[in-house]
């Protein structure tokens, strides 16, 4: 017999739970029938452990026992969710939120990777409340929230909130190259994920050496870490394809610039990138059927490139939505509250809320004004990703389609350089007067932008027409004071404008502490506020450029570079008669010289049958000083220890040689032949590797042997646009393919490179 006191609570709980369920059913019946969302059928994916081993007490041929489901056809169990830091206990509020998050992620992946927020709510089992769903969607590791234009039709909203499935899980770039398995990434054949691995064919002579199973021991451990083990094969493919940029072919940016059938792309039909409108893949092309770029990913040229990369026809059909989801994940990670604030507030009422808004400029390369064009001429010409303009600043207003220059640009710049001005008033039409707001960067409801040259702290002192940014704080009398300057009423700060500018651009920390007199302060780059750490008083800060008139620009260009130390840093073995102030000279080396022999030995170590025609030294004083400046900077940052410097090879096309010799390597312009270890310029230890990337339009090939400051490095990743952090304050200097024995280096800052030698050769031994 059972013990009565123990049995009573057990039956009492059953009765109470039954009454509660009955009450819920009665309330639902009173409200009328609830529309049932279409279920997402669940069956354990092929290869999942549920197929492999029967549970305890279950025979081999019986129906697999499933864990208790929360509701509907899903089989998620809160206690089985293993996330970094440990899973919440079953029944806890955290477990319920986590289970709902995984359900939502699976519904999204089964629905093409994204859904409108309202539609997602309707499709989830049990139809959770808007509040519960909003709490779940705050998880930025799983969800990206964006606004997209609503569907056309009567009563359609102008914009709708869309949820995009997101994950930090990636494929391991070291898979197949000796990865010990501690990488925290999936070991999987990328062609299998894309839908077509040639080594799977019956006619294939060899088996694929990569794993074709999402649920191998290693992969299942990674999936469980992120709560993805219940997703089936197709859902995981959808999730990874729209999150891992290394899996999709790039869109050719040169095709999207210039006129003609192939835009400004010089590779034309031999280009390995997709010739398709980049804006249509983002869902942003305003020209529609009138666009001069292709909107068809299924055209023969694109389709052939996609098939060559192992894309199945099913995946190719999904690519437009996958590219759009990827773009939103990369650029749309915002909280829904921020989205609502931005939507409800007109442009003129918006206040700056971040470091990006406060500067009224964009430090991205495409929105910088090209310094080389300002100096004399840009070697990259129409291929240059930077803006070509005759001033170091440019003010423009958007008409909704294109950016148009302001006529009174110098007046606007002069007003903007004074920190006390928050706007500039000017008359646009006879019917009214309008103003440019410097805080929200708007003119009425139209967006305004200011383009400028690179910040002066990012270039050596001899560079001219860079933008000198000055930092100010507002005192108790509403007067703007410059940092580092001694005032009548205030002690000078221990940091100057240059110090703040370097910290601001480094983005290693949102805060910086300093002293002024006996007080200690904290400066917040995000809120653009300064706080006294003792009294807790706060002051506004701002960042404005130093004004330069058009006359000063013309005079500075006429004077040329500021060579304060002459040519003291130039190597002693350089030809002193060939040192141009701008540009470069090629000095052919004597084949009997030690310099020639050293380069030859390094080159023929892996290219013994190649015939060297000539080796030239590149003499570019401007680039050399920039390289030495970066070298000194890295040494100071490294506590006085010299940076690791190596001679590395880089293969290129002949048409890019002059531009590289004049302006250095730039992967955005010279082309990107791979992104496995990051988006940067790739250099190789072995000449034989770089030989694969040399142009083949003639019998003679060209290859650079460059000085490269590799510094401290780590294994790269396809989604890196800069090296990762090595500690809380500093970044690595470069990325590599293998940290213990690197043969491929990725450099993200071109100041770390000097193109020292140019080697012309033929692959055959005809000239030996």
Protein described:
This protein is an alpha+beta fold and 768 residues long. Among the domains are: 345-458, 2-Layer Sandwich (Signal recognition particle alu RNA binding heterodimer, srp9/1), CATH 3.30.720; 472-545, Signal recognition particle alu RNA binding heterodimer, srp9/1; 585-762, Alpha-Beta Complex (Phosphoenolpyruvate Carboxykinase, domain 3). 27% of the residues lie in helices and 17% in strands. It contains 21 helices and 24 strands. It has a six-stranded antiparallel beta sheet with strand order 5-4-9-8-7-6, covered by helices on one side. The chain has a six-stranded antiparallel beta sheet with strand order 11-10-15-14-13-12, with helices on one face. Strand 22 and strand 23 form a beta hairpin. The model is unreliable at 1-25, 31-43, 50-90 and 333-363 (pLDDT under 50). InterPro entries: ARTD-AVP, Poly(ADP-ribose)pol_cat_dom, WH-like_DNA-bd_sf, WH_PARP12, WWE_dom, WWE_dom_sf, Zfn-CCCH_PARP12, Znf_CCCH. Residues 34-47 have a biased composition (Pro residues). It is found in: Cytoplasm; Nucleus.
At a glance:
The protein has 768 residues and is of the alpha+beta class. Helix content is 27%, strand content 17%. Among the domains are: 345-458, Signal recognition particle alu RNA binding heterodimer, srp9/1 (2-Layer Sandwich); 472-545, Signal recognition particle alu RNA binding heterodimer, srp9/1 (2-Layer Sandwich); 585-762, Phosphoenolpyruvate Carboxykinase, domain 3, CATH 3.90.228.
Number of helices: 21
CATH names the topology of the domain at 585-762 as Phosphoenolpyruvate Carboxykinase, domain 3
Mean pLDDT: 78
Overall CATH architecture of the domain at 585-762: Alpha-Beta Complex
Q: How far is the first residue's CA from the last residue's CA?
A: 101 Å
Kindly state the percentage of residues in helix: 25-40%
Question: Outline, from the CA principal axes?
Answer: globular
CATH class of the domain at 585-762: Alpha Beta
Strand content: 15-25%
Strand order of the largest sheet: 5-4-9-8-7-6
Overall number of strands:
24
